[in-house]
């Protein structure tokens, strides 16, 4: 038997040589990998040499979200509740279609599958249905799949220092509400892959209201076999019938809205569970959405009611002859202010 | 052997003497005083629980020899273990036995002289093993009887009428809250659909 720890000069030098050789191989791999990934993210090399800004990171994030083959574990922390998901994303090679799936680790929840711009919701004991959308809204606001620069009117972008998340180097970008009417959104982007490692709604004093954490991340060169299977899996087509016909109501006037919020849609529909009729307005500032419901008054309800679940606020106020409810990811006081501002339009 | 000598020995053990007194005591130390000094030390050790067993084999052996002799004299079978003093003490009724033996021994004509010593020895034994046996006895304490009586006497009946009552004001509100939260999430799912339509319209125009 040759002793394990022999210190003869020949073996000693051999080892140094081997170590040197392996480090050269490592360097070579590094160079080749950079070379391979550069076509996908053209400014990758610039990232390491030049001073980069938030826009660079956000475009890198968008590229990564839509072009990378990855598999990730996700944990969402919302108030006292914790939920965990598996998230698979890939690009089907023959057609170049984006395929992704978000499924709860603990069964019973909603599984979401996206193929290109069709998102299918699969729920237990329910018919699966599809809608048109270019993103799964589970964790990441859809704006990050588009051009985040459209937030510039209501938010300012602050590039903060790098930190470690799940053992990976992450660049923090703070998207801060200029008017302080909305929560700040902090996003930690993986320096290597460009994928989000942590996302958080943070209030004015810096308390995290709700956050999404990536617990593990595996990147693949090729799409996972699962992606091909999902691509072949038949999903119902997106149907127009699901969406209430646009019947814009002009009965109500919002006398106050936070800075940057614009009307996305308005209609009158039956609220899904209670079947109560409601006049409905959906506003968005690009990052978060706010729903406004105007309904007949509840006999038993008088005072204002304010609830909060993570970053989502729920404010119901009783006005003269109607109840107004505001739901959305805005601070409670803002939700109450919006609800209180709703006035009946004087019919001529 | 005078009281004075013993006093100085005792003081020596208690570390209450100065250098000159130590020397003075050492000078007058005879064989008997040395033995006394040893015994004092032993007593101290036992009291401070620093000594688990009597290590003076000669002392215990002499007692054992005496007892063995007695058993043979009385024609009884030798049930007392003869290995060590500890073995004697492990016998369930060891002290009654010894007392019995010692009494019969003292009443016999041959061992009157030895009798007194045996009594003293048995007292010492009781003292020594009384101390050293205290801890083991704690371990052998019988475990308390498991309490099988339930803490709560029984499940008291409750009325289920409340479940049949009309939904309260809070329940109505609660239903609305749940419905609106669910509807909000539902609306968000199709929100982008609307936006896409809008974008398309804008592009078309």
UniProtKB/TrEMBL annotation, chain A:
<dbReference type="InterPro" id="IPR033436">
    <property type="entry name" value="MucB/RseB_C"/>
</dbReference>
<dbReference type="InterPro" id="IPR005588">
    <property type="entry name" value="MucB_RseB"/>
</dbReference>
<dbReference type="Pfam" id="PF17188">
    <property type="entry name" value="MucB_RseB_C"/>
</dbReference>
<dbReference type="InterPro" id="IPR033434">
    <property type="entry name" value="MucB/RseB_N"/>
</dbReference>
<feature type="domain" description="MucB/RseB C-terminal">
    <location>
        <begin position="247"/>
        <end position="343"/>
    </location>
</feature>
<keyword id="KW-0574">Periplasm</keyword>
<feature type="domain" description="MucB/RseB N-terminal">
    <location>
        <begin position="54"/>
        <end position="223"/>
    </location>
</feature>
<protein>
    <submittedName>
        <fullName>MucB/RseB C-terminal domain-containing protein</fullName>
    </submittedName>
</protein>
<dbReference type="Pfam" id="PF03888">
    <property type="entry name" value="MucB_RseB"/>
</dbReference>
<keyword id="KW-0732">Signal</keyword>
<feature type="signal peptide">
    <location>
        <begin position="1"/>
        <end position="37"/>
    </location>
</feature>
<comment type="similarity">
    <text>Belongs to the RseB family.</text>
</comment>
């Amino acid at each position: 038997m040759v002793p394990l720890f022999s210190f003869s000069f020949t073996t000693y030098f051999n080892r140094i040589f081997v170590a040197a050789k392996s480090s050269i191989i490592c360097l070579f791999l590094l160079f080749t990998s950079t070379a391979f990934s550069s076509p996908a993210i053209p400014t990758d090399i610039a990232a390491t040499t030049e001073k980069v800004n938030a826009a660079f990171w956000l475009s890198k994030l968008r590229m990564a979200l839509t072009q990378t083959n990855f598999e990730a574990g996700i944990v969402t922390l919302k108030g006292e509740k914790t939920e965990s998901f598996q998230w698979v994303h890939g690009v089907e090679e023959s057609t170049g279609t984006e395929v992704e799936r978000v499924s709860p680790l603990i069964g019973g929840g909603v599984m979401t599958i996206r193929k290109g711009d069709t998102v299918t919701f699969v729920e237990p004991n329910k018919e699966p249905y599809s809608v048109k959308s270019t993103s799964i809204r589970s964790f990441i606001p859809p704006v990050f799949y588009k051009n985040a620069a459209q937030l510039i009117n209501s938010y300012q972008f602050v590039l903060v220092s790098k930190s470690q998340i799940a053992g990976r180097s992450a660049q923090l970008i703070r998207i801060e509400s200029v008017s302080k009417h909305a929560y700040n959104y902090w996003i930690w982007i993986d320096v290597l892959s460009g994928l989000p490692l942590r996302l958080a709604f943070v209030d004015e004093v810096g308390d995290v209201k709700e956050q999404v954490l990536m617990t593990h991340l595996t990147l693949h060169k090729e799409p996972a076999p699962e992606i091909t299977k999902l691509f072949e899996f038949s999903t119902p087509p997106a149907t127009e019938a699901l969406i209430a016909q646009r019947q814009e109501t002009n009965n109500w006037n919002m006398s106050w809205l936070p800075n940057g919020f614009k009307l996305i849609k308005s209609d009158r529909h039956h609220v899904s569970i209670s079947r109560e009729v409601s006049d409905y307005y959906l506003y968005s500032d690009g990052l978060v959405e706010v729903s406004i419901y105007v309904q007949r008054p509840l006999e038993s309800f008088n005072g204002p009611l304010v609830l909060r679940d993570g970053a989502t606020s729920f404010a119901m106020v009783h006005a003269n002859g109607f109840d107004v409810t505001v739901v959305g990811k805005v601070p409670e006081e803002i939700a109450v202010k919006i609800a209180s501002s709703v006035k009946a339009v004087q019919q001529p | 052997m005078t009281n004075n000598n013993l006093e100085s020995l005792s003081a020596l053990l208690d570390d209450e003497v100065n250098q000159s007194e130590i020397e003075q005591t050492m000078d007058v130390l005879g064989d008997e005083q040395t033995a006394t000094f040893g015994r004092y030390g032993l007593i101290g050790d036992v009291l401070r629980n620093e000594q688990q067993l009597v290590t003076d084999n000669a002392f215990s052996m002499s007692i054992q020899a005496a007892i063995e002799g007695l058993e043979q004299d009385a024609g009884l079978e030798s049930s007392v273990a003869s290995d060590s003093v500890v073995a004697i003490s492990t016998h369930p009724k060891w002290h009654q036995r010894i007392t019995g033996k010692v009494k019969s021994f003292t009443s016999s004509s041959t061992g009157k002289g030895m009798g007194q010593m045996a009594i003293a020895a048995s007292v010492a034994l009781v003292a020594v093993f009384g101390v050293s046996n205290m801890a083991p006895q704690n371990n052998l304490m019988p475990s308390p009887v498991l309490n099988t009586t339930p803490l709560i006497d029984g499940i008291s009946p409750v009325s289920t009428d409340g479940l049949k009552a009309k939904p309260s004001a809070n329940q109505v509100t609660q239903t609305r809250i749940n419905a609106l939260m669910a509807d909000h999430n539902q609306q968000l799912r199709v929100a982008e659909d609307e936006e896409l339509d809008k974008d398309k319209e804008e592009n078309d125009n």
